[in-house]
Amino acid sequence: MTTRNSAAAAGSQPVAAVAGVTVRYGSTTALDDVSLEFRSGVTGLLGPNGAGKSTLLSVLSTARRPNSGAVALLGEETPGRASRARRVRERIGVLPQSFGFYPRFTVLEFTEYAAWLRRVPAARRRERAREALHLVQMEKHADARMGALSGGMLRRVGIAQAMVNEPALVLLDEPTVGLDPAQRVGFRTLITELGERCAVVMSTHLAEDVAHVCGRVAVLLEGSVRFTGTVAQLCALPRADYGDDGESGDGAVDGSAVEAGYLHLAGAGAVTT
Ligand SMILES: Nc1ncnc2c1ncn2[C@@H]1O[C@H](COP(=O)(O)OP(=O)(O)OP(=O)(O)O)[C@@H](O)[C@H]1O
């Protein structure tokens, strides 16, 4: 049990928004008329395998253009001119579910390479790479080969490469998958810290991740948004009849309450708060 990220629940301006977004892969509709806004702090995208979470992150990263609908990122309407999309991309950090790397690269070389890809000026690349590695507590492994890292260390370097351009928006696709319980706890702390620096959108199918890290949450089921609101509001759904808001006296929620809210939605219509 932990304290929720209150910054995310605050009524700040949206950092990113999608309106009426539909994405199809052939005959599969991965996102169906999805409208969502993302603000500062950590927002969770919660849903089962195939719900459309990764597809939504690919739209938010500008990697995929929707078949229809509007996308606004960091104050810019996209998709639009290539130069505008590139400008936006330079202010976004992405941790995909898996990322490729040359195994003989050192951790520092890989992070500097990510800085180059994100068009960080040459004079600042090394400094930024070191700062990003410090953020994820990997600076003492800067000279280690990428191919020799454990899964948890690789995920940390993955976060470092996502933060190397000092992004305003960070997209994390299932960042805790494959981590052992202790690593997962450490990662939740790290993601909470990221949410204090920039807006973070994190996809997950783990209710515990949402309970520990997120201020707001959107539940996606079969490509549709079934809930948006605070984590406490999601927890309150099954208990609404009793006037229980799912929140303990210290503003904390737990994973089982999030899971109960999530399961409640399986048989319910869309809820927006
Ligand atoms: N490149 C693709 N080609 C065809 N269908 C795809 C492609 N990518 C995703 N899909 C389909 O789109 C739907 C949404 O997939 P998506 O990967 O966005 O879901 P997800 O919620 O991220 O799932 P997971 O938790 O398993 O990563 C699924 O039915 C999936 O099979």
TrEMBL record:
Keywords: ATP-binding, Nucleotide-binding, Transport
Alphabetical list of Pfam families matching this protein: ABC_tran
Residues covered by the ABC transporter domain: 16-247
SUPFAM superfamilies in the record: P-loop containing nucleoside triphosphate hydrolases
Signal peptide span: none
GO molecular function: ATP binding
SMART domains: AAA (SM00382)
Highest taxon in the source lineage: Bacteria
Family recorded in the similarity comment: Belongs to the ABC transporter superfamily.
Protein name, entry field: ATP-binding cassette domain-containing protein
Species per Swiss-Prot/TrEMBL record: Streptomyces chengmaiensis
